[in-house]
Amino acid sequence: MPAGISGDQAGTGSGGAVDDDYAPAAGTASASAATRAVDDDGRATPRNCNAQDVASTSIQAAVTASSAGDTIVVCPGTYTEQVRVPADKDRLTLVSSSRRQAIIKAPPAYGNGTVDLVRVDGAENVRSTRSRSPARSRTPRTATRCW
Fold it and tell me: Are 29 and 53 in contact (CB under 8 A)?
C-alpha cells in the first residue's frame, strides 16, 4: 500500500505504481469520492488509459478539480509541471496506472535551482504510490521522478 505523506510536507513522488486493476483500499475513500484520470493525450478513464473519454492533461488540473478523498490515476507519459496539493485536499491519492511510466519533470522556468515536484501544502494523509523520498526532499530541476 502507498506510503502516506501528511501535514505541511513536500516530496518528489518517486517510485512505485499499481497495475490496471487499481482500486482504492477499503476504508480509504468516502462513498462520494471520485476517481479521475490524467493522460498526456487528454483521453482516458481511471481504468483504461486507451479509452476515448475526456481526461485531464495535467496532474495539477486534476488536483485542482478534486475534492478531499478523491483518487487521481495518472496514465503513462511525461508531465512537465510542479504539482501543489493545497490544504483542502486531505486524503487525496495520486497513483500511476503503470509501474514507473508516469513521469513528473520540472518546468524549465525553475532555472538551475531545486524545486519540489510535488508539494503537499497543508493537506493531511495525501498518498502517492510507494513514495520513497523523505519529506522536504529537493530534486535538481533537470531530474525527473516517476511512479
Answer: no
Q: Which amino acid, one-letter code, is at 92?
A: L
Q: What is the spatial distance between Cα 79 and Cα 48, in angstroms, rounded to a whole number?
A: 18
- Tell me how many degrees the CA angle 84-121-145 measures, rounded to the nearest 5: 45
**Which residue carries 482516458 as its cell?**
44
pTM score, two decimals? 0.69
| φ/ψ bin of 49: left (φ > 0), alpha (ψ from -120 to 50), beta (otherwise) | alpha
- CA 128: distance to chain centroid? 6
Query: What is the C-alpha R_g of the chain?
Result: 14
Q: Is 104 exposed, middle or buried (0-12, 13-18, 19+ CB in 10 A)?
A: buried
Q: Mean pLDDT of residues grouped by 10 in the chain (147 residues)? A: 30 33 46 90 96 97 97 94 94 91 84 77 82 38 50
Strands (E), the chain: 3-5, 10-11, 35-38, 71-74, 77-80, 83-86, 93-96, 102-105, 114-115, 118-121, 126-128, 139-140, 144-146
